[in-house]
Each structure stands twice: as structure tokens, then as C-alpha cells.
Amino acid sequence: MDKMDLSSRPELFDFHGVSMTHYFTDNWENIQKFQARPDDILIASYPKAGTMWVSYILDLLYFGQTSPERQTSIPIYTRVPNLEIIVPYLQPGSGSSPQIFKGSEMADKLHTSPRLIKTHLPVQFMPKSFWEQNCKIVYVARNAKDSVVSYFHFERMTKINPDPGDWSSYLQRFMEGKMVFGSWYDHVNGWWKKKQTYPNLHYIFYEDLIEDTGREIDKLCCFLGLSPSAEEKERIRGEVQFDNMKKNNMINHSTFRGMDFKISSFIRKGKVGDWKNHFTVAQNEEFDEDYMKKMKDPTLQFHTKI
Ligand code: A3P
Q1: Which of 43, 45, 52 for mutating ligand 1's site (highest number of atoms within 8 Å of CB)?
Q2: pLDDT category, 93, cuts 50, 70, 90?
Q3: pTM higher than 0.90 for the full model?
Q4: Does domain 13-294 have CATH number 3.40.50.300?
């Protein structure tokens, strides 16, 4: 079977202690050799934390005014490539034979300054050049319950992910860390710990962005050393609102071939607390009990409602 054939779903396997699929490991050597530049900005997260939301905010902060055509002609996943992805794609005009899209090559070819690069890698998998170049990193984190719900719907619609199966077994797998990019618990804790020794890391919470997007944009600007005008910030805040992003074809992934929009949407619900529509009372109790055992660091706190 051709493993780049999008009609079959990939298998999860153990990769240096983390569950992964070949779509994120096949290009491993190039990923590890990736040459970061000092002004690169990395947006890191466990999947479904609001990565694209933050990517879009950063893209508008840096390039919203200087290259307006970028906003109308280049999909966000090309503007802010995922470093580790390797997937087939159909290039317009190339007939029916797919090319291979390698995130590391896309990132290499970006001619913006800074380059905005996205990753879902756990901290221990990061190419060392990002640390050597002391790049600025924005880590996006979202509470576990909404993350697992969002991930479930995403995997239902995304053929480059394993088949999620039914909700209750999916939730069990999440608790066991048997998800693409591994354990949510290890991921958020690993990057949180890194923040203690690496000051160029800004840790941002999805729930805070929902609560007050303007305040979080201010914090991002402070971290990045940017000082847009009040009007510009207000314009950005408006553009990145859920409804506007949902209908923006350069943002909503409608041009991405590996997703089935009949099943779900990439920009799906955008709420804190949607987990309540999915967890049963018993599932919630079991989840909370397990969570307490795994999340021992009192300095890392998530909100599951606002
Ligand atoms: P839901 O599935 O809960 O709706 P990522 O970009 O990391 O894959 O995260 C996707 C999640 O972020 C989805 O969550 C998506 O709807 C949400 N999201 C994207 N843009 C958003 C916005 N402007 N406001 C609120 N949520 C947003």
C-alpha cells in the first residue's frame, strides 16, 4: 500500500516514546537538521490548542499592513508552515499526480522576515538550532477537556490522521497519551518546564484569548517587541474573531485536500466548555481523577470554563 495514499488512514506507532504517524516522522532527518534563523518565530502547541488562531494573529501583526495581497491569496498553512509535516498535495496545473509537501522545505523557502513556523512537536523533539539561535517561541495551550473534544472532531474529518473510533475509546486513548504527538499532559508540562529556563518563550492560553483577545494581543506585542497603533490592533482583533476566520477561505482550510468538510469544520465551534456536550458524568469523574495524578505542577493551571 502506498503510505502517501490519502484514501487510507495512517497507523499510530511509538516514536522515541511518543505516539506518532509517518506524516510527521518521515522527514525526520531534515527536521532535525533544520537551520533556524535568529529572527524566526516558532508557534508551538499540542494539536487543537488554537494554533492557527495565534498564527493568524502573528501573521497580521507582522505582514497585515505591508503585504495585504498575502491575506487574500496565500492559505495560512503555506504562510505559516508546519515544520514536521510531510503529505501529498495536488499542485494546481500539475494534473492528477500529487507532489509531496514537506513543511521543512516550505519553511526553508519562506522569504519573509521574520519567518513564522508552526510545530506540534513535544519540546524534546525540537531541532536544536531553534535553541542555538535563541528564537522567540509562542506556545499555545488549551485545557485538556476541550482539546480532546476538538481533536476528536478534527480526526473524524482529517484523513491524514488515524481513525478516531468512537468517543469513549478515544477519550481513553487520550488519557493514555496514545494520540498523534503523544500525551497532552507531557506536552503542556514539557513546554511549561522549558519556559523556566528559556526566557524567549511566551506561554499563551486559549481560554485567555477567548476571554480577552485584545489583552492577549497586547501581551504578544510586548513579548515580540511590536508596537502597532491602537487602530491596527483593533482591526486585527476584529479580523481574528471566530466568525470572520470561519468564513475566510485563506484561513478555514477549505483548500486543503485531506479534510472532509461534510464531517466537521476546521474552525468548528471555538468555545471554552464544549466538553460538557461530550463527556458523560462518569467520564468526567474518571478524567478528573486521572488528571489530578498527572498534573502535579501547581504553577500550571487551566480553565475549563470561563
Ligand atoms: P474547536 O474544534 O473546539 O472549535 P488548532 O488551530 O490548534 O488546530 O485549533 C483549532 C481549534 O481552535 C478549533 O477548536 C477552532 O475552532 C479554534 N479556533 C480557531 N480560531 C478561533 C477563533 N478565532 N476563536 C475561537 N476559537 C478558534
Answers
A1: 52
A2: low
A3: yes
A4: yes
